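Hi team, as promised in this morning's meeting, here are the two structures we talked about. I've kept the exact order from the run log so nobody has to guess. The first one is mostly here for context; it's the second one we should focus on when we meet again. Sequence first, then the predicted structure tokens.
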Amino acid sequence: MATLDGPRLGPRAGGAAQQLVVLLHGLGADGTDLIGLAPEWAEALPHAAFVAPDAPSPCDMGPWGRQWFSLQDRSPARMAAEIRAVAPALQGFLDAELARLGLPGSALALAGFSQGCMMALFCGLRRATAPAAILGYSGALLASESLAEELACRPPVLLVHGEADEVVPVEATRSAAATLTAAGVAVETLYRPGLAHGIDPAGIAAGAAALRRAFGVTPG
């Protein structure tokens, strides 16, 4: 099983971490891409530790970056098989980071962009202890046909997607929200008019607010 690692940011307030936020990058990027969200979200969670692991494999669709799994074959069955194969590596990393920080599973939040969103939803909803929250940006819910029988927890989920996304169509999030709601998962959605495949300030602010709610942190 691949050993994951990536850039980290310690609690803004100093001292021991009280929460752990794991940021999962998209295809062709690496951990340095999403760790940039940490300083902004640390304003909302000053006692949180942040980590953005690099995906385990070199990207097979370009000359740089990493991938969680191959998207050469985008059939639902192939993508489901690919994400199942890599999920244990991420689950092991999450467990190891929580243990390193001396935190329970309930102190975890997952945030992912694009392919990282797919990983966050797949792994987060199958953890024995529910994460405090899952934040998914511009992604999709893979292996949705088996979710009802595999769902292990129901953390609150925020899904954010640009309505002008030409990489992952916004319909993927609309479908994910419907499937999750039907499974009893509390879902908040934010659709951004004119936004392509990316995260804008409104999406970042929505993520900060979701993290504060999840961890019971009062703005101040």
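And here is the second protein, the one for discussion:
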Amino acid sequence: MAKQIITVIKGDGIGPSIIDSALEILNAAGCDFEYEFVDAGLTALENTGELLPQATIDAIAKNKITLKGPLTTPVGEGFTSINVTLRKKFNLYANVRPVVSFEGTKARYEDIDIITVRENTQGMYSGLGQVVSEDGSEAEAMSKITREGAQKIAVFAYELARRENRKKVTIVHKANILKSTSGLFLKVAREVAALYPDIETAEMIVDAACMKLVMTPEEFDVIVTTNLFGDILSDLCAGLVGGLGMAPGANIGEDAAIFEAVHGSAPDIAGKNLANPTSVILASIQMLEHLGMGDTAERIRNAVADVIKTGDRTTRDLGGNHGTTDFTQAVIERL
């Protein structure tokens, strides 16, 4: 059988060191992958003059599965977010952000287990109709939701819930105010919900959802929502389990999937062997599950959980005083 080839984008800042950590752990767990390394972000800009070179796009299209570190999009006009570009180019319509409590972190809660499923290509982030008046006194942008887009993400969320034996999907919206866009999203999500009578459905206005996530997070299981709300809620959920260092993300389309650390490139600690690689290790676990390698994913998750629980060679943000390589070694020993 041909080996699974994974496109690997190491990324900027701490990206290379945390990606190396994840790859070492995948290899130690017996994953027999081949890796094709390509560049994007500042590294690519320096080497090729482009943030997202054609060779990188070709590799993602060819191999279909990508693991990527954090990328830096230079601030300023003329540079489009690389992540947004990738989502559009490959129609990665579903953004999946699971958060799970790990014992031993400095998180405020103990048994969080929530998956945010965010529509990834429409709404306020579609970049449509962005205009600033010549005198700089007015700005406008357009939000666009399609029935097809809303239906695809709702079906994705319910199918995910069913596959993972989840009990409940909460549709998060703002249809009371945004009657057209959020209204359409809610209407279509309700239609989809009716096809899954085995799964409990709740509906919640986004501001109430933010409050409830902080006060009674145990009410949530799977959240499905639009692009802007999903971006905000998924970071709020990460905060429940100890921050972005504990939160992976997947961008999934019909022909390609990109698994990533969701935090930034942290240039201030790059090259200092200080970064916590957990986010990208968890992203690689998501990748294994996507590839149907659930047993291997579980072994790695248990090893990471044990390292964090025992505080054995953890990084500073986890209350330890060790670096990326020590943490990685501790996980590998448990495998």
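Starting points for discussion:
The radius of gyration is 20 Å.
Residues 113-240 form a domain with the Isopropylmalate Dehydrogenase fold (CATH 3.40.718.10).
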